[in-house]
Amino acid sequence: MLTDFNFRVIWEYMPLFLTGVRATAFIAAVSITLALITGIIACACRISGIKILKYPAIAYIELIRSTPLLVQIYFLYFGLPTLGVRVPELQTGILALMLNSGAYIAEIIRAGINSVDEGHIEAGISSGLNYVQRMRFIILPQALGVTIPPLLGQNIVLVKDSALLSLISVVELTRSGQTMTSERFMPAEAFLTVAFFYMCIYFCLKTFADWSQRKLIFREVY
Amino acid sequence: MIEFKNVNKWFGKLHVLNDINLTIPKGEVLVICGPSGSGKSTLIRCINRLEPIQKGKIIVNDVPVHDKATNLTKLRADIGFVFQQFHLYPHMTVLENVMLAPVNVKKIAKSKAEKIAMKKLEQVGLTEKSGVHPAQLSGGQQQRVAIARGLAMSPKIMLFDEPTSALDPEMIGEVLDVMVNLVSEGMTMCVVTHEMGFAKKVANRVLFMDEGAIVETGTPDKFFDNPKTDRAANFISMILTH
Amino acid sequence: MMAFYFGQLVEIFPFFLKGLWMTSKIAFISLVSCTLIGLVLGIFRSSNSIILRHLVGVYVAFVRGTPFVVQIFIIFFIFPEWGIQLEAFSAALLAMAIMGSAFICEIVAGGIAAIPKGQWEAAASSGLTNLQQLRLIVIPQAMKIILPPLVGQYVLLIKDTSVVSVIGVMDLTRVGWVTVVRIPEGLMVFTLVGALYFMISYPLILLSNYLERRMAV
Question: What are the C-alpha distances in Å from A198 to residues A75, A161, B218, C83, C167?
């Protein structure tokens, strides 16, 4: 089966793979940061109750959630040039990941805010706190605890999603596998190595996510 | 009918059953009591093999319970079990709860199983509730349904694991009444309970456990009025003041 | 110019419908097979056998730890090396089944784990076999917990079918990709593609929201 698995070639291509890992990590880090900002803004608009903010936010979130990421990537990749905007592949890709994850993050935050006990909010109102104060002192501190685990989950999803950027020629981990495949035609070696590196990233992030969840549960008990 | 021979059980390092030897003849009503953590629930859960044991033998109706070859389904069909927390199936009506095992284990036709189930519900005084879901019943009613469910398989033995501990005081009576009626029908019963009144009224024997071992056995009157050991005396004074 | 391209797009619209049909076909077959396999794996994952549990655990970790596009490449390129010829369509279905069943497995196992142990014990005490305990008592109750996230997962799976376009399956995404070469109006073409995806997945999103609200009550 894989008896002729060629480790020597993998070793030869190791610098390329490591460049890919670094690029994937960079793309993920930048995208998740931007997505977090986008998500917070979109969520704030959605729950604001101001119509001209609320409805565009809902439209954005729902449109993103009901279309595939790959279509969104192609939309920007093929669409931006027709608007006369020239954006390099990497930036286009990061923009797509930002918009996509931003919508999911907005929903995660909203769920966190909704999870806060109605009674606490009423208590806040009764003690005379205004909307912003209630948000700041009562709702957000409690919502934060419940949003952190799904946010870390979204981070894992984003790392895997970034693999799709290889399809618009962004240099990252999956692209390294494609490059090696086209140069040597050894897809087994190439993509199993790629998968191995993704697994490594996944386990690091997963361990961190599980650890943080345990910490949070721990805090809730006391 | 039920025989424990040098039964030992550990949860990790904790020795929960310490060399239990016990014979329960047919028709006996045995009340088991003891402080929490004494192993009394574990003891009766071993009888229908909800719990494995590490050493010794339990024989029920001439069948070695913890033998690999034992047909568990057949064994359990002969033993009714009533839980502290009732454990009725929330997605089924009362009647469906009671009919489930006769239809699926004994393969009795549905119409016939329904008749049996209604008879058992009559026995616990709940025929009018046959169509409702467990969530709509009070705790006492739920426990009576659970007893009917246990009886539906026409078991030779009924096991009760603290059947009244999860109930509000005013509901304890209705459940105990059902159990007393069962005794008068000659059912072999093992009841883990602290209900002294019940024990004095119907039990043939009381068994006191502590730290996984049987500390004392005796007739209810002797045990409650004249305990032989200090530990039992302590325990009785505690449930009396409670 | 835009009007001209729009006219062209209208002309080749049947081509898009073909893509939509392919996407629906892949989605439907995948959802059915993923649900069935996921259910079985989820039951294995919650079984008493340590070996079975960990075997499924490793499978799930591998699927969850790698991007779907990499999984497709592995299946599409490596099977032929082992002498198994797979055409793009079967490779796509196989990849979807492997990926989707792993995610559904976790949902099912989560639902089963949420059923109190007492329900198993009560069922065992009345003499039900392991399979009957599962079928009559545990699964019907777990279903209520499983359903909302399951429908949510269906939406994700339908969207993930777009990735099978990379190995040449003529699905909706691939149709857009091929079209944009001839009609260089990226916004227009992919708005159309997006709208067609929206038509399939949005109703399911609404259903999933509804189920979640009903669960919360």
Answer: 26, 11, 68, 27, 21
pLDDT of residue A3: 59
The C-alpha atoms of residue B7 and residue B12 are separated, in whole angstroms, by 16
User: Furthest-apart CA pair in chain B: how many Å?
Assistant: 55
Measure the CA–CA gap between C174 and C193, rounded to whole angstroms. Answer: 10
User: In 3-state terms, what secondary structure has residue B137?
Assistant: coil
Q: Do A70 and C171 touch, CB atoms closer than 8 A?
A: no
Q: Does C176 touch chain A if contact means CB atoms closer than 8 Å?
A: yes
Among B50, B89, B101, beta carbon nearest to C121: B50
Query: pLDDT digit string (tens) for C41-97?
Result: 999 999 888 999 999 999 999 999 999 999 999 999 888 877 788 889 999 999 999
Contact A168, A73 (CB under 8 A): yes
Taking any CB pair shorter than 8 Å as contact, residues of chain C touching chain B are 116, 118-119, 121-129, 132, 136-137, 140-141, 144
Identify the CATH number of the domain defined by range A2-215: 1.10.3720.10
* C127: number of Cβ within 10 Å: 25
- What are the two backbone dihedrals, phi and then psi, of residue B133, each rounded to the nearest 5 degrees? -90, 150
**Which architecture does CATH list for C2-216?**
Orthogonal Bundle (1.10)
B133: left (phi over 0), alpha (psi -120 to 50) or beta: beta
Quick one: which of B177, B122, B117, B172 has its CA closest to B149? B117
- Cα–Cα distance, A211 to B42 (Å, whole number): 35
Beta bridge partners of B11: B14
Residues of C in contact with A166 (CB under 8 A): 69
Nearest 5°: phi and psi at B55?
A: -145, 150
Q: Give me the residue spans of the domains in chain A.
A: 2-215
B117 in reach of chain C (CB within 8 A): no
Kindly provide the ipTM of the predicted complex, given to two decimals: 0.91
Contacts of A89 (CB under 8 A, 6+ apart): A77, A165, A168, A169, A170
Type and span of the H or E element at B17: strand B14-24
Examine the pLDDT at C2 and tell me if it is beyond 80.
no
3-state secondary structure of B89: coil
Cβ–Cβ under 8 Å, residues C33 and C94? no
Q: What is the DSSP letter of B154?
A: -
Helix (H, G, I), strand (E, B) or coil at B21: strand
B56-111 per-position pLDDT tens digit: 999 998 999 988 888 888 888 889 999 999 998 888 899 999 998 898 888 899 99
Q: Is C181 exposed, middle or buried, given 0-12, 13-18 or 19+ CB atoms closer than 10 A?
A: exposed
Q: Which of B92-96, C30-34, C122-126 is predicted most confidently? A: C30-34
DSSP state of B229: S
C contact test, residue of B49, B104, B160, B190 with most C CBs within 10 A? B104
Q: Are C45 and C57 in contact (CB under 8 A)?
A: yes
Chain C residues within 8 A of A68 when measuring between CB atoms = 159-163, 173, 197
